[in-house]
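Why do we care about 3D structure at all? Because function follows from shape, and shape follows, mostly, from sequence. That is the central idea of this module. The next example makes it concrete: a single protein chain, its amino acid sequence, and then its structure expressed as tokens.
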Amino acid sequence: MSYPMTPAEARVDLSAIRDNVALLRQHAPGAEAMVAVKADAYGHGLVPCARACLEAGAIRLGTAYVREALELRAAGVVAPILSWIVPPGEPLDQAIDQDVELSAASKRLLDAIAEAAGRTGKAARVHLKADTGTSRGGATLDDWPALVGRAVARQAEGTIEIVGLWSHFACADIPGHPSIDAQLTAFDEALAVAEKAGAGGSHVIRHIANSAATLMLPQARYDMVRPGIAAFGLSPVPELGDFGLRPAMTLVARIALAKRVPAGSGVSYGHLYVTDRETTLGLVPLGYADGILRHATNRAEVLAGGRRRRIAGRVCMDQFVIDVGDDPLAEGDEVIVFGDGSQGEPTAQEWADSLGTITHEIVTRIGARVPRVHR
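And the structure:
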């Protein structure tokens, strides 16, 4: 397949995403799949990736914010979408009118949703979130009964419909962590409270499993699983392998300048790299404004001319440099920053390991001026 000549681009293999979603569904037989496509589908491109997930059998999509869900609706995506971060000022009326499902973890938000539903004339579809031990979103177990009671009352008046009960793991990616069983116990207690109050039933979807739990915790799959990073081919537990997932993104750039420099040449800001011989340097038109972490200076590798090259010197806002020695390098030559490793290039996991972070950060940092090319 031919690609446009651009300084840099992120090539996204939609068939890999479809294969990954199909594999994740195989790990959770009997459970629906909702794929999290927040943050521009983890940097891969929201609308094309959402469609690929649905083509592979996902039933729902998940977004962090309402505006992400509305972008999908504007693109013609009709599948159920859950948005779970709903700060004050979110366009609740528009969300309800567009059939976006909303998460609620406080009586204040539940009342705001109900009032918006009254204005639109449609019942809002709501997932009630319990904090089972992550201490982030969700109602604490002390506050949970009151939240459920308010939701049941709002449902009786017709302004909301309770369609989901959910929570989120803190340590599902740490096999054997004691918090996993503790959170499952707390979630079961929260479900029992909801059931007793009249907020349960077979039509209400119970869900807590993220990517790691989808792959490794059968007891956590309940009615629906919510994979995110794994759908894009990146392992949620890299120390246990790739689980057969295929990375979907390949980040490439084209050499903007190649030149010979003498031994002793300081390279980039601060001269943190100095050539030890006459050599050829190549200028790669990607920088920290594009998501290449400044911390990659003298650490991370790319593939150029069939060989791996370490970044030479400080990563700048729009560019970094590689040293290829006496190997041939010309302007326009392609550099693979990371990919699936099939050509010998580094993977996003290798970048994450070398920089002391996680793959989520590597792929979601890729900036908007790097076009996504989907195939």
